[in-house]
Design brief:
A five-stranded mixed beta sheet has the order 2-1-3-10-4. The chain has a three-stranded antiparallel beta sheet with strand order 8-5-9. 42% of the residues lie in helices and 15% in strands. Strand 6, helix 6 and strand 7 form a beta-alpha-beta unit. The two termini are 42 Å apart. The protein has 13 helices and ten strands. With 328 residues, it is an alpha/beta fold.
């Protein structure tokens, strides 16, 4: 306080400081803490609504104080929820299927985006022909969604794992694509689009959905452990309500929302990169029933498809994987 107070006003400033100290803890005590854990060890623009919710007061309006946690790797989020190290998570929908198969108690409480934006990505101006996929090198990640989607791609192309070269990318496969070290990259379209348009100022080639044989189902879900939901139903509803408000604002103000996120997480990319990525993602947020709504079909198609390609031995009832009970 002394840096902004003159000596003459020191007593008044000291009194103000004491009053602030007496008010802030009382106000903070009225907010329910929520620990949100991401699906990836670092932030990216899918977190725009979460950060906007924090920074613009949407969570506070619903009585919450939301803190963001990051897992050590892309396979730990569900276990953090199941062991009470976090409250609400963000995960690929495949993770929920595998978690159920392994007996890890976690369910989806809402969709994030409403469609499958995962694609094969080619260099600007080049074609991507599924009939010519044999022998090609494809950049892949080690997460469960990529593994599942590649199974569908190979089935569509009538190929086996050994018919293509899957090159594991530690952080990013787009540089490998642009330097011609691989023939195609894989990712949710928003990430490849943002990186290539931001850097090369050109549109990449995208092959998605039916063109590559992958089901058009949501990529990500918000998740929680049933035990936590049982005793925190009101908190879960309030969190989704605050997130819905934040999504509304972020869709209406994409550049401002991306700027808020970029300021909070500078290593997550340039402002232009985040504007491109979030603007694309924002277009995928609403389905026929608005935000979040899940259905039996998506939670039947995905497990059945995973069973067909040998990644799980059996399909469980849809209610095993999801609930809409906490939607605002």
């Amino acid at each position: 306080m002394t840096s902004v107070c003159s000596i003459r006003r020191l007593a008044a400033c000291a009194l103000s400081a004491l009053l602030a100290l007496s008010v802030v803890p009382a106000r903070a005590a009225t907010l329910t803490p929520v620990r949100f854990v991401y699906d990836w060890p670092v932030a990216d623009f899918d977190m725009v609504p979460i950060v906007v919710g924090q920074q613009m007061g949407f969570y506070e309006k619903h009585g919450l104080k939301v803190d963001v946690l990051f897992p050590p790797d892309a396979t730990t989020t569900a276990r953090m929820l199941a062991t009470s190290r976090a409250d609400i998570g963000f995960e690929a929908t495949t993770d929920l299927v595998f978690a159920a198969q392994q007996g890890v108690p976690v369910v989806a409480i809402a969709n994030f985006t409403q469609s499958n934006s995962w694609c094969l990505i080619g260099r600007p101006g080049e074609t991507l022909d599924m009939s010519q996929l044999k022998g090609k090198s494809i950049g892949v990640f080690t997460d469960s969604w990529t593994k599942a989607m590649m199974g569908f791609v190979l089935k569509k192309a009538n190929l086996q794992d050994t018919d293509v070269k899957q090159i594991i990318a530690q952080d990013d496969d787009i540089p490998l694509l642009l330097t011609k070290k691989i023939d195609f990259a894989t990712n949710a379209a928003a990430y490849g689009l943002a990186e290539i348009v931001d850097g090369a100022k050109q549109q990449p080639t995208l092959a998605c959905n039916d063109a590559i044989g992958v089901p058009n189902i949501p990529v990500w879900s918000f998740t929680a452990a049933p035990a936590w939901l049982k005793t925190n139903a009101a908190t879960a509803k309030a969190w989704l309500a605050g997130t819905s408000d934040a999504i509304d604002w972020s869709i209406a103000h994409p550049k401002e929302a991306a700027a808020i996120f970029t300021k909070a997480y500078p290593p997550a990319g340039s402002l232009n990169y985040n504007v491109i990525g979030w603007t694309y993602t924002a277009g995928l947020m609403k389905g026929p029933d608005g935000y979040f709504k899940q259905n039996d079909t998506q939670w039947t198609v995905l497990p059945a498809a995973l069973k067909d390609i040998g990644q799980i031995p059996a399909v469980k009832p849809p209610a095993t994987y999801y609930t809409n009970d906490y939607l605002p």
